[in-house]
Every structure is written in structure tokens, then in C-alpha cells.
Amino acid sequence: MEEEEFLNNDDQQKQIRYSIERYEEMIRNKDAYFFDVDAFVNIVDYYIEKNLLREAQLLAMVERFDDALYILSKAEKITPLDPDLYMIRGSIYSQLQQFENAIESFNQAIPLAEELDMLYLNLAYVYESWGDYNKAIDYLKLSLENNPENEIALYEIAFCFEFTERFEDSIDFYNKFIDIQPYSFPAWYNLGNVYNRQNRFDDALDAYDYCLAIKDDFSSAYFNKGNTLANLNRYKDAIDCYKKTFEFEAPDALTYYNIGECYEQLEDPQRARDYYKKATKLDPNLAEAWLGIGITLQNEERWFEATHYIKKAIELDDKNAEFLFAMGDAEYHLDNYVAAEAHYKKVIDLEPDNQDIWLEYSHLLMADSRADEALELIKKGMIFLPESADLIYRLACYYYSIGNIQESYSTLATALDKNVQLCHTVFEYSPAMENDRHILEIIDLYKNRI
Description:
Elements: H1 3-7, H2 10-29, H3 37-61, H4 65-78, H5 83-95, H6 99-109, H7 116-130, H8 133-146, H9 151-163, H10 167-180, H11 185-197, H12 201-214, H13 219-231, H14 235-244, H15 253-265, H16 269-282, H17 287-299, H18 303-316, H19 321-333, H20 337-350, H21 355-367, H22 371-384, H23 389-401, H24 405-418, H25 424-429, H26 437-447
Helix pairs in contact: 2-3, 3-4, 3-5, 4-5, 5-6, 6-7, 7-8, 8-9, 9-11, 10-11, 11-12, 11-13, 12-13, 13-14, 14-15, 15-16, 15-17, 16-17, 17-18, 18-19, 19-20, 20-21, 21-22, 21-23, 22-23, 23-24, 24-26
């Protein structure tokens, strides 16, 4: 029989599969069946080809790709209609970053494969590797059309929507999917994640609740529901959700850390510290947990103790502006102005658009009787943050404190013109200015313009 005729003979392929099934049934039953010569040859070819496919897979695993492709070419001559052959070849081409060849191979398997959802999933992976995430989404949708219960595809499409920032498309997709598959807990879970990402926290909670109603032991849903509750400042409820995860899986450092953050927000520094410490025991490299311990100590004005823990955080990440800022604050309160200034300078280098660092660093300079430097620093900050009314208000305070009253009035007017609602910050920083009748008149003048 000519190869072309063989390739197009579906009936013969069915007969081959039937012969193989009979042969395997015979082996299982330890019986003896009759096979004609053609059937027996087809059975032998099938197992030779299967062994070749296994050999090709093993060669690919050790990155002997050329040898694997050669073996596949031999297998193709024996049974050219085996979809596994083209899927293995497609995977090899994908690893070689020969994406066009990979796509061609997977497409050859489409008319032959029975599990189309996995085939479309593999095509999606190729397009992801190629950087075409929108095309990957198209194939993931095809995968889910063929098998709505393919959880891998559901999570992968969530990743692609997130990566491409197609959040509204993601919400639309999951809502339509849920209309057809209302008991798909991964769909509800991923929908909750998208809502959370879009700050639609109430919608996120509803989605997580539906997810948990379907699968009440899904720890990831409890964890992310906890995150959503924390975003809504419902810290006690968030803690309950985080702790619920421990019923289904071993505690992890991140969950302990999040519980610590919630207790910190509830102004319970001791419990916050307890959980931050639990986090560091499970993961000594979790720098944020070391910082958390330090911050809770700072909140209790235990500045020296705080430096020990903040230092550990900095050792793990010495380019983190938040860590350096915290250390600068601790050193400032310990009257270690030189050390504090060194840390503040590093923060400015890393985050010149951080308004607070200009305020705190300039305050240190004023406290150190270096008013001229403080004025210059605030002005430099205004170059980076020209829309910051807070910096202008602070400049007015500094002028007032050094006796440059007229310049203070003028600067105050500029700040009020920028944002009159922040005028209270002047009196918070410099209470003496509240006793200046002219300042009160200037503020009233601008308030009456609203």
C-alpha cells in the first residue's frame, strides 16, 4: 500500500487500534487470540514506534535534541499518524526556541489527537515562550472549550490576562465561563484575584466565597480572601482567613508575615512581633519580616532594639529604600545624626520622588542647626516634586523658624494656592505660626476663595 493511501485511510487506523486493543486484552487475560499477518505486523510496528518515542523523550530530557529528532523521524516512517510523535517533536522545537517549527508540529497533531485540550495548551505555551500572550490566550480558550475542567488551562489563562493587563477581558471571560460552569472553583478563584487586582474588593470577596462554597478546603482562596479583607481594613477577619489556611496546609512564612501586618494595623505590637518572628524562623531571608519586627519596636520608641532587626533586613536587601529610611529614623531618634544622614542620602539616591524623605532629612538638618542646608535640600526636593504642596508648606515653616518672616508669608501663599486643604500641616510642624495673626489672615483669604 502506498504511503499516501495509508495516511488517508482512517478505517485502517481504526483497525490498527482495534488490533492493539485485542492484543493487550489477550495479554491481560493470559489468553491466545488469532491475528492475521497484517494485524501482527501492525502490532509489532506500534510497539517499535512507542519504544522509539520513549527513547526520543529520554534524549530530549538530557538535551540531546538532534538525536531525539532523528529518532522521531524513524518513528514517523513506522506510524505517521501517532499524535504523540508530533507533540514530542513540537515540545523539542519549543525548547530549541524554533517556535514556527513547534507550532507546525503541534498543528500536525490536531486532526489526530483525542485530547485536544492538552494540545491547545501546548500551543499556548509555545506562543507564551514566543512572547505572543494574546495568541496564547486564544489557544487557552480553545483548550477550555474542549475541556472546561482543565485546571491548568484556567490558571494559565489567568496568568496571561494578568501579564497583558487585560483585566476587563479577564473579568468578562470568567463571568461567561462561570455561566456555563458555575461549579468551577478555579474560575471563581481567578475571578476573585482579578477583582482584587482592580481594587473591586467587595466583588472579590463574593467570588472567593463562591469558590469556598464549592471547595471549602482550598487554602489559596482563604489566603487571598485574607488579603482582600486586609485591603478593606477588616484586619480581624483577615487574620481568621489566614489562620484557616493552617487547617489544610503547613504554615508558611508569608502567611505568618501577613498575620503580623494585621496585628500591627490593629495596634497590637507584641502579637505582630510574635508572628513576624515566626515568619523569620520559617524563612530567615524574608527581609520584610525583620523590618516588621523593627517597626513594631519603633512604634514603642524602642529605637536601639529596632536597629538590630532593621539592620538584618538591610543585610538581605541593601538597596531597599524603605529599610534604609527606617534605619535613618531610628538613628535620628538615637541622636546619631551622622548615621541617620548617611541612610537618608541613600534613600534619596534610590527614591528621589519620595516626598517623605525630603521632609525627614531636612528636619534632621534643622534639628542639627543647619538651617541653610535644610532650605537648600527642600528646594532640591521641589525640583523632583514640583507639585508637592507639603514641601512648600515645610519651606514656609523653615523660613519662619529662622526669622525670614516675609519670605515665609510669600512661600505660604504659594503653598495655599497649590493646596489650601493642607494648611493644617503648618501648625502641626510649627505651632508658633498659629499665633501669627497675619498668617491666619492669609490662610482665611485663600480658604474664602474655595
